[in-house]
Specification:
alpha+beta, nine-stranded mixed sheet, six-stranded mixed sheet, 26% helix, elongated
């Protein structure tokens, strides 16, 4: 009987050992992608080893290529002899663009669901090369003989301020620093004095900090940024000190004079800036008008840039040279919307009954092929508090712009003849745009001369050059509008 019991006990012990080895291998084996081994933390005395989703960082190094359905590829307009070399140059320029815009640092950081580590989940900001205290670091853990935390970074050095003799700090002024203490209170006091100093001088970049305790690790971003100085415009006391009217003229002086007279009938003191690239410039008369003569036929966007560069008011109002102010044309209505919504950069109106506006559907695509962009005629969400105003990506040629914001985007002077949607493509993601009904202006009757028409409508070679330009400049695989 005793022998049978021994055999049974041996079999049970053997089974327990096999099960222990099996589950030990399951728990402690190397995790697959996006899985890390960690210990759950709770206020109870029990802890369990479990598998949790990885806390990052995750990168999207291979985005899905976009499709060009029912659209010719943008490289169709590039000469076959030049395509290969152009693609190489474009790839290098795109790589540098990602560096300039910080896209190489784009990562997604997910906070673990349960951790004893307290940290600034949204990160914090430092100025380059300056020592800065890391806010909010702390450990919340149960009693144990020794507590130890570690912090490591890549683009800076870590240190504890006013380190005292006997304080267990390992890695002072290095990229990785550990703090040990038998007192949780003392450890947290040391963490409150922990600093970061960037060793990389850059006006806008970021580092990642890895903060760990036992099997727990959290990650938070450190924004390394040179502070910028505000650029403010004194709005003065009325619309004359808030807004400048901008006009680009080419040949159509008769229409320009009608427009100026209509402006003066409603706004006799407002400043008007005229950019003129006519073949034989004529004098533009009137009070408070700045007339800038350009080299002949420099084009639509070159004139916009020139006019915008001379604005000294907070806002500008863009009008074409053949528009006309109506009795109900009201610049103050634009200003009211802009002032009530400081985030807005462009407010579009309507030319007679034409409230042209659109959205841009853009896919980044892969880094080698480029993205896809399509113009669609629809509006987005309504602007709260203003009936008839909707968020869009582009508006008609009658709009008010926030001077400083639009200057940062600018108007591409390569585009001379047909250029409107192209500005809003460049502004996508940088300018917040709305279109509003009942902000009206009139349009004069068309009286184009043969000379004007010959410049207004581009040749096929100009159109092909324009598409080749977009292929390179906007890193596009296809474009449709």
């Amino acid at each position: 009987m005793n022998g049978s019991r021994k055999i049974v006990l041996i079999l049970i012990l053997f089974t327990v050992i096999l099960l222990a080895l099996f589950y030990s291998d399951f728990i402690w084996s190397k995790p697959s992608a996006h899985i890390v081994r960690t210990s759950s933390y709770s206020n109870s005395s029990k802890t369990a080893n479990i598998l949790k989703p990885n806390i990052g960082p995750f990168r999207n190094d291979n985005p899905t290529p976009c499709s060009c359905q029912k659209t010719d590829p943008a490289n169709k307009y590039v000469s076959k002899d030049e395509l290969e070399e152009m693609q190489k140059r474009r790839a290098e320029e795109f790589r540098q663009h990602q560096i300039r815009t910080g896209r190489e640092n784009d990562v997604l950081i997910l906070a673990p669901a349960n951790t004893p580590l307290q940290y600034p989940i949204k990160g914090f900001r430092v100025t380059p090369m300056n020592k800065t205290r890391i806010p909010g670091l702390a450990l919340q853990a149960e009693a144990r003989p020794v507590y130890k935390v570690t912090l490591r970074v890549q683009k800076g050095l870590l240190s504890v301020l006013d380190e005292q003799f006997g304080e267990l700090v390992d890695g002072q002024n290095e990229k990785e620093l550990s703090i040990s203490s038998s007192s949780l209170k003392q450890l947290n006091e040391l963490l409150s004095r922990l600093t970061y100093t960037s060793t990389v001088y850059h006006i806008k970049t970021q580092d990642l900090a890895y903060f760990s305790f036992d099997n727990h690790e959290v990650i938070f971003p450190i924004e390394i940024r040179r502070l910028s100085v505000p650029v403010l415009f004194d709005p003065g006391k009325d619309v004359n000190s808030q807004v400048t009217v901008l006009i680009k003229v080419f040949l159509r002086y008769k229409e320009l004079n009608v427009l100026i007279q209509s402006i003066r009938s409603l706004y006799p003191k407002i400043k008007i800036i005229v950019a003129d690239d006519s073949l034989e410039p004529e004098k533009v008369k009137g009070e408070n008008i700045e007339h800038y003569i350009m080299p002949p036929a420099q084009g639509w966007f070159a004139g916009r840039n020139l006019a915008l560069s001379q604005v000294t008011t907070k806002y500008f109002l863009w009008v074409d040279d053949d528009f006309v102010f109506l009795e109900n044309t009201n610049i103050e209505s634009f200003v009211k919307i802009m002032e009530a919504n400081p985030e807005l950069d462009v407010v579009g109106g309507q030319v007679e009954s034409n409230q042209f506006s659109f959205r841009l559907e853009y896919e980044e695509g892969s880094s080698d092929e480029g993205g896809c962009i399509t113009r669609v005629m629809r509006t987005g969400a309504p602007l709260p508090g203003f009936d008839g105003c909707f968020f869009v990506d582009g508006v008609v040629n009658y709009f008010m712009g926030r001077t400083e914001a639009v200057r940062k985007v600018g108007f591409d002077p390569f585009l001379k003849r047909v250029a409107h949607t192209e500005f809003f493509i460049d502004a996508l993601g940088d300018l917040l745009v709305v279109t509003c009904k009942d902000l009206k202006i009139g349009h004069q009757k068309h009286s184009n001369t043969n000379k004007y028409s010959s410049y207004r409508h581009p040749s096929k070679s100009d159109s092909n050059a324009k598409m080749t330009h977009h292929f390179f400049k906007n890193h596009l695989k296809c474009i449709k509008y």
